[in-house]
Amino acid sequence: MRRRTIATVADEQARDAAFEVARTRARTCTRCPALVASRSGVVVGADAAPADVLLVSGAPGADEDALGLPLVGQAGQLVDRLLGEAGFPRVGVFVTPLVKCLAPGNRDPSPPEVAHCSEHLVAEVELVRPLVVVALGGFVTKVLRGDVASIRARRGREEPRTLGTVTFWLLPAFHPAAALYAPALVEQLRADLARLPELVARGRPEASPSAPRAPVTESGQLGLF
Length: 225
Known about the structure:
This protein has 225 residues and is of the alpha/beta class. The protein contains ten helices and six strands. The protein has a six-stranded mixed sheet. Helix 1 packs antiparallel against helix 5.
């Protein structure tokens, strides 16, 4: 028992150190001049790690940029409530933006910006090792699936995906910000997040050479399509 406790502490310390290295790399990144000019800081993933569930939002908005935290404000409150209803309080879930910096005019990140930031998402996924990755919104879904299928066509339809060395269930869902403007979407987002216990209970999908992977370029970066 003593040896197991020491090993567990050592594992946690090693993971914490790896996280700090990954966060420092993200926070000191200057690859995208337009984003460096528009950001107040860099928003990295937060809350639990390791975690069974990882939520990926788009790029930080003004509130996230100001606070340095992902998915805050009314959209964050909605997600917190629906996660709690599903039995997954926010404190037990890892939440991170696809791209870590506020874009000028709050626009969607460009393909080069997505590619430049992809190493940070891959590092987070490999450290968190989620069983389920929830892609919030059409933009994130298109990037992680590597095609242009609409979020309405893909929401709630899980599929195995691999990013880095981790295979997981990818679950597309509407972005909570969209649900705030279209209340009918709240019920669809609720229904999708309510499936988290079922997907986690399935365990990790089997990795195989034929399993779909998130689209990664020859340089190891995520591409848009």
